[in-house]
C-alpha cells in the first residue's frame, strides 16, 4: 500500500467534505435550497476524491479486492449541475433547469451494466476492458465540456444579476465572492483539462502522472474547503439581512421626494425624507440620484447639505448609515446577527467600508461598540 502526505491530505479533506455535506443536508439551520445544492456539490467532490484515494493507495490490490468493486460512477457528471444549481439558486432563481442532469441519467445505466458484468456476468458476457476504458474516456471528455458550459452559464448569470435593476426594498446579494469562486473553479478546470490531455496523449512515467494527478485532487480538496465555508457564510449574511429588512415594514420603495415643500425649510424636508424612507440603505445612492429625486441640481443639493451639516454628500450619507448601524448593534433583537450583515443592511457595500466609516464616526470598531453597548 502507498501512503504519503498528499493522499493523506486528500483523504482528510474528503472525510471533512463528507461530514460537512451531511451536516448541511440534515441541519434545520441550513434548510435553504442554495445550501442543499452546495452540500450536494461538496459531497460529490468528496466521493470522487475518496474513489481516487482508494486507487492511489493500492488498497484494492493489497487486499485482493477486484478493481471493479470500486467501479467508477461518473460523479463529475453530477458535480457540474450541482455547481450551477448552487449559483443560480443563490442568486434567487426559482426555476432550476433539470436538463443539466441528462448526461448523468444517460450514462448511469451503462456504468451500472459494466459494473454488474465485471462482478457477476464476466463469464457469460465477455466485454473487452479496452472498450470499457474507452467508454469512460469519452465520459471524461463529456464531463469536461459540460463543466466548461456550467462555468460559462454561471458567469453569465452573475453578470446578468449584477446589471439588473432593483428596488430599494430588495436586497442585493454580494457577487464578488461568487466571481472569485468561478475563477478558482476555472483554475481547477484547466488543471483537469491539462492532466487529461497529458494522461491520454503523452507517454510519461508513472511518477509524473501521479504527481500531476495529486495537483488536481489537492486543488479540488481546497475547493471543497473554500466553497463550503464561503457559501455558508454568505448565505447566512443574506438570510440575516432578509430578517432585518422584514422588520422595516414602513420602508418605501425607491424615491418619494416629489411634492416636498420647496420653501425655506428645503433642507429639513430633504433630510426628513431621506431618513424616513431610509434612502441611505441603498448602496448605489448618489448625489445625482437624490438630486433627481427632489428635482434639484446636483450643485445646489451639495451646497444645501454642506451649509446645514458641514459635510459633503458621501459623508452625510455615511453618517446616516453609521447611525443606523449603531441602532441595530444596540438592539437586543439583533445581538446574534453578524456585524457584517448589520453593516451591509445599513447601506455599506463592503465590510471594509463599514468598519472604516464606523470607526471614523464613533472612534471604535463595530465589535467594540456592540460590546460597550451590552455592558451599559
How would you characterize the overall build of this protein?
By secondary structure, the protein is an all-alpha fold. It is 70% helix and 0% strand. The chain is built from 15 helices and no strands. It has helices at residues 5-26, 33-57, 59-62, 76-90, 102-119, 129-163, 176-201, 206-246, 266-276, 287-293, 298-309, 313-330, 339-345, 351-362, 366-375. Helix 1 (5-26) runs antiparallel to helix 2, helix 2 packs antiparallel against helix 4 and helix 12 (313-330) packs across helix 14 (351-362). The chain is elongated and about 95 Å long. The mean pLDDT is 83.
Shape: elongated
CA-CA gap between termini: 63 Å
Residues in helix, %: 55-70%
Alpha-carbon Rg, integer: 27 Å
* Oligomeric state of the chains present here: single chain
Strand runs, count: 0
**Main β-sheet: number of strands, strand sense, barrel status?**
none
Order of helices and strands: HHHHHHHHHHHHHHH
Query: Number of helix segments?
Result: 15
Summarize the structure.
Helices cover 70% and strands 0% of the residues. By secondary structure, the protein is an all-alpha fold.
Task: Outline the secondary-structure elements.
Layout: H1 5-26, H2 33-57, H3 59-62, H4 76-90, H5 102-119, H6 129-163, H7 176-201, H8 206-246, H9 266-276, H10 287-293, H11 298-309, H12 313-330, H13 339-345, H14 351-362, H15 366-375
Helix pairs in contact: 1-2, 1-8, 2-4, 2-8, 4-6, 6-7, 7-8, 8-13, 12-13, 12-14, 12-15
Keywords, please?
single chain, 376 residues, mainly alpha, 70% helix, elongated
Amino acid at each position: 500500500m502507498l501512503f504519503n502526505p498528499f493522499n493523506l491530505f486528500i483523504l482528510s479533506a474528503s472525510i471533512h467534505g463528507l461530514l460537512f455535506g451531511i451536516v448541511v443536508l440534515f441541519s434545520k439551520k441550513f434548510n435553504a435550497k442554495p445550501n442543499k445544492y452546495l452540500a450536494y456539490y461538496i459531497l460529490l467532490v468528496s466521493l470522487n476524491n475518496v474513489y481516487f484515494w482508494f486507487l492511489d493507495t493500492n488498497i484494492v490490490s493489497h487486499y485482493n479486492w477486484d478493481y471493479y468493486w470500486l467501479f467508477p460512477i461518473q460523479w463529475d457528471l453530477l458535480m457540474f449541475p450541482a455547481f450551477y444549481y448552487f449559483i443560480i439558486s443563490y442568486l434567487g432563481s426559482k426555476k432550476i433547469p433539470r436538463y443539466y442532469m441528462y448526461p448523468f441519467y444517460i450514462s448511469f445505466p451503462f456504468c451500472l451494466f459494466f459494473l454488474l458484468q465485471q462482478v457477476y456476468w464476466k463469464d457469460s458476457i465477455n466485454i473487452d476492458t479496452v472498450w470499457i476504458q474507452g467508454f469512460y474516456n469519452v465520459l471524461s471528455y463529456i464531463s469536461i465540456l459540460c463543466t466548461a458550459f456550467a462555468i460559462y452559464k454561471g458567469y453569465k448569470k452573475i453578470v446578468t444579476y449584477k446589471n439588473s435593476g432593483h428596488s430599494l426594498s430588495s436586497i442585493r446579494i454580494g457577487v464578488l465572492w461568487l466571481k472569485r469562486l468561478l475563477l478558482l473553479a476555472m483554475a481547477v478546470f484547466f488543471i483537469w483539462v491539462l492532466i487529461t490531455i497529458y494522461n491520454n496523449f503523452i507517454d510519461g512515467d508513472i511518477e509524473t502522472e501521479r504527481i500531476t494527478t495529486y495537483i488536481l485532487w489537492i486543488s479540488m480538496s481546497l475547493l471543497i474547503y473554500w466553497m463550503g465555508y464561503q457559501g455558508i457564510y454568505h448565505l447566512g449574511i443574506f438570510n440575516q439581512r432578509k430578517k432585518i429588512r422584514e422588520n422595516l415594514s414602513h420602508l418605501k420603495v425607491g424615491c418619494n421626494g416629489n411634492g416636498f415643500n420647496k420653501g425655506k425649510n428645503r433642507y429639513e424636508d430633504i433630510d426628513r425624507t431621506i431618513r424616513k424612507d431610509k434612502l441611505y440603505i441603498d448602496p448605489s445612492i448618489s448625489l445625482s440620484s437624490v438630486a433627481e429625486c427632489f428635482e434639484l441640481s446636483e450643485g445646489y443639493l451639495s451646497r444645501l447639505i454642506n451649509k446645514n451639516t458641514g459635510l459633503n454628500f458621501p459623508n452625510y450619507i455615511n453618517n446616516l448609515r453609521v447611525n443606523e448601524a449603531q441602532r441595530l448593534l444596540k438592539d437586543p433583537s439583533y445581538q446574534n446577527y453578524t456585524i457584517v450583515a448589520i453593516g451591509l443592511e445599513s447601506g455599506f457595500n463592503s465590510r471594509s467600508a463599514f468598519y472604516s466609516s464606523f470607526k471614523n464616526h464613533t472612534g471604535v470598531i463595530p465589535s467594540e461598540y456592540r460590546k460597550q453597548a451590552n455592558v451599559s
